[in-house]
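Notes to self after the call with IL:
- keep both proteins in one doc
- input above output, always
- annotate only the second one for now

Protein 1:
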Amino acid sequence: MSIFLAGVLRDYGANELHFTDIWSGVGPWKSVDVEDRARVIGIMTDLMGAYSFPIVHQTVSEDTFADHRDLRESLAGARAGDWKLDRIDQFGLLALCSNVSRHVLDLKAKGPADFDLPLPLFVDEGVLPAGRERPLPNWGTAIKGQRACFRSSSDLAGLQLADFAAFVITRSQWEVVKRKQRPAFTKAEAAILRAASVLNVLNLSIRSTTSRELGRATYEGWMQEDREAKGLTRRPSGCG
């Protein structure tokens, strides 16, 4: 990863990889042609595929709480140490800590010699500034020191792997919902869907499809099936 980042800095003047910027051609990537930007995304795709880093995907938003109104009401004014549970960003991070810890313990049980526990938890700056740490209310068996350590992605390359995974998952969903069913994928669609296909996401199901089938209606059908399986309405509240 360090060799890759050094090459990116040398060739493109970017000291870190923000894949939304790379895809859109903004910031240091504004003057970089599409083929070169696609090549950078392709290299990261190959890296993620080769190492198969385990990924846990989670989204928490107002839509989440619209599905669980009783939970939202119960969190009003609630605190866990310094964490404010009625703030979506902080509640979401703690929920992710819980989910990641569960998956880490499961992976450890399946491969006891694969890695040692507990593991340090590094979080991209945002909820707290880089350099800050905050104790967690639980999960000490999986998370070293039972604390979240906030860092800048420019200082910790591993956070850029997480940025790539988040970008690919989000962008691939966007590409699918706006595409019309047709015989072939565009270059952009093929690039992002190939990247999505190599991600080792532990808590998302794998779907097989074709360019003729894949589009908004197909994707929304999958989402509705998933919501029903979880005991939710087929569509979120307020979506008709």
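Protein 2 (the one to annotate):
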Amino acid sequence: MTSRPRKAIRSSGWKTDFFIGFPDGLLLFLFLTQLLHGKELTVQSFYNINLTFLLIATIIIAIAMYRANKGSEDDGLLTTGEKEKLENLDINNQTIDHIASEMQKDEQKWQQVLVDERVTLADYSLWHALRSAFFTGIFFMAGGLVPMAPYFMDENFNSASSYSIILCVVAITWFAFTKSSLTKSKIIPILARNIFIGALVLFASYALSLAF
């Protein structure tokens, strides 16, 4: 089977890390805080759950970004080891070749997506992968702290919830304007998309809190 030198997704440095980490952290913890604040939890338990989840989620997204930047020598292609496993399953060569062909077509489509989105592929760099993982984790944590901040300042969680939503709307609006400025894109589609996703997050947290 064919393979290619290890490549990694390389877009725009800290900007890409910011675009990924900050909104994901904000929306995830908007969901979690809205889901938990009405539950019968002590104040300290609420804090402990959110902070523990923030730490774990930050580590997970940092690892995910490291792996994305790390790349692979055979991304999207059928490796020799995978071919041998298929042969051990008594799958005929024609079927295996068809699988390999379809995987290669999918890889070519993915390459075109990268071109359309103006995301470049660069040779793998350990330093870049580690740096991207670190900054994505930092931005993710910063985003997660936005909806949590009002709960640290006001232990009346009902009022803190309202302030949290307002603060998140302000943060989402700021993020949309910042992203628009950095990418030279139109502000309205970015803002509308982020507000819509935020509204879905609120609806989902409300629906789940009623269900459970």
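Annotation: Residues 1-5 have pLDDT under 50 and may be disordered. The helical segments are 14-36, 43-70, 80-88, 93-116, 126-153, 157-183, 187-211.
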